[in-house]
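User: My collaborator and I are trying to settle a disagreement about how two of our proteins should look. Neither of us wants to argue from intuition anymore, so we agreed to look at predicted structures for both before our next call. Could you fold the first one, then the second, and keep them clearly separated?

Assistant: That sounds like a sensible way to settle it. I'll keep them separate. The first protein:
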Amino acid sequence: MGRSIPVSLYNGKSWPTKDQAYSHFKEMLGRYIVGERVSDVEDHSDLKALLTVYDETAIEGEPTKAGIGIDYFEKGVNDQHPGKTKCFYVIRTDKSRIDFSLKHALNAATQRQA
């Protein structure tokens, strides 16, 4: 099912399994409060590297999550999901914002390496 596939990101970070990578990012999400900007340099680097892999799988012509560029990340609540799921949001350089799924991004990372 892909969970034993290692995950490697462009910033040099890697995990032996997708489950371990997911745990890393979920733990990171837990360190921030809703509305808080991701301030740790390593956290920002990991999220940016993960988002880069995720955007590589975007359908040609479709907008990417990074858009015209990443200004920063913040923890937010996605009201469109049951239970108002907490997730990371990308705040772009044009100040637009969009959420992204850690699960979908890690799926993209494992597909790239499979």
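The second protein, kept apart from the first:
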Amino acid sequence: MNTKKKPKFRRWMSNSLRRINESWRRPRGTHSKIKRDEKGKIKMPTPGYGAPKKLRYLHPSGFREVLVWNLKDLEKIDLKTQAVKIAHTVGKKKREVILKKAEEMKIKVLNP
């Protein structure tokens, strides 16, 4: 497992200008020191920071997330590698039924 920490990619000037949000935007100025990747400046996201293919799209618990809308979807789950996330559009009654069934089948639910 890759334990190296990635830098937080914050948008340039977001710390000093209140109107600029922190979400990353690529610098496009011709003289931008960040765009030119100068030493000591803010880091830009590059493919090298990506996680290994085996670890991509994993939940921190180590399982792959699978969205579930009904009881039929629970039957397709692999207990060893997958965990269930109940869709936000599922109502209270159906959610309780899905939770009971998942508990019987010993399936991990990420948002109970």
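Some points you might bring to the call about the second protein. The first strand starts at residue 64 and ends at 68. The chain has two domains: 7-50, 51-112.
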